[in-house]
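Hey L., structure's done. Input below.
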Amino acid sequence: MATPAPHLVDEILEEIFLRLPTPAALARASTASPRFRRIITERSFLRRFRKRHPPPLLGFADEEGFHPAQAPHPSSALARAFAAAADFTYSFVPKPSKGGWMPSDIRDGRVLLEEDNPGLKIFRNLAVCDPLSRRHRLLP
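Output:
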């Protein structure tokens, strides 16, 4: 019996990996062998995986803090754990000279903070922070 071509085996493995239910399962599979890791870490594969498995909705943040998704939403348990682990009071970011910080935008786990100072109309101070790792960067 002839052995299948290596590229066909890789394509079959890729299709199997695409059907794994969670990113955690994909990470565990990538540790099984160097071949699996090579397939899973390719950009084209990761793009397809993210398209098939969009990130879960955890909640939203506003001036009052983070509001996690509530039950019966499927990611409510993950959202509560995230809310408990992250610092959405932004206490790790140095206070601006006047006022405080107000979230302006959130992408990929990072928050763009804008100085909440009504006296400044045009040039407000900005900061980008990661509430989970408690790191920040002040923007000039």
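The beta strands are 59-62, 65-68, 100-107, 110-116, 126-130, 135-139. The chain has a mean pLDDT of 87.

-- N.
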